[in-house]
Design goal:
A hairpin with a 7-residue loop joins strand 1 and strand 2. The protein has one domain: Rossmann fold (3-Layer(aba) Sandwich), CATH 3.40.50.1820. An eight-stranded mixed beta sheet has the order 1-2-4-3-5-6-7-8, sandwiched between helices. The protein contains nine helices and eight strands. The two termini are about 35 Å apart. The longest helix is centred in the middle third of the chain and has 16 residues. By secondary structure, the protein is an alpha/beta fold.
Length: about 280
Amino acid sequence: MNPPNGSTRLLTADDYATNARVPADHRLAYGPDPQQFADLYLPKGGADASARNPVVVTIHGGCWRAAYGLEPMGVLCAALREEGFAVLSLEYRRVGTGGGWPTTFQDVAAGADLLYDVASDFSLDLSRVVTMGHSAGGHLALWLAGRHRLPEESLLYGPRALTVHGVVALASIPDLVEGVKRDICTGGCSDLVGGLPEEVPDRYRLASPAALLPLGVPHRHFVGAQDHVVSAEYLGLFVAEAVLRGDNATLVELPGVGHFEVVMPTSVVWPLVRAATLELVLRV
């Protein structure tokens, strides 16, 4: 599928859902629930101890809701694998099947921290870890990068939180409070946290990347100018605040692009996403 050009229509959620399923090299469980697993894609050569592979942790979107799983992300994971990255694609409990507060966050954290246990088995270089997420997954990718700022007494604190070295955020939802105001994902932000900001303000301070600034790592944001789910204006506010707080953050607004082109390796967006990922890995 190609990105819109001129009068070409924007890709839809149905287009994205029909992506070919690309099986992973390994499926790894990080908990007992059927949704607590991660798919690992290894570059050509596999677990070669002489050449440890940089890692991209990918997180799918879908408004944090149970109806949407990681399967359509397989084509993106395969494209990253072809570029020489090991890719850990996280599944997690979502709203409707045991997810929400706090389990979605605990799952994503546990899935990422699984890398500590498997790094030697698969020759993974944990000094070069980038997270990448689309939409709600972009929120979680940024949250993983900022998790080191959580207070120790927090329900979401992890003593061995995986160190993230950069984030590629594709039409992400980084400010949950502003997301509630704009009704992004039609109530999805408040459903994830289990209440409105005025009802559970402490949860938003722990769950929203905007509340964890500065993240302390570079983050690269991409959004379509015709994205009707996440606007460039909304993301621009977050990126501007991140820069003001000292983060190395950038935003690229893509003309003629909607919500799903940014996550498609067959679109004109892909070279930019690829370049950003390589940049973040090489700067470590």
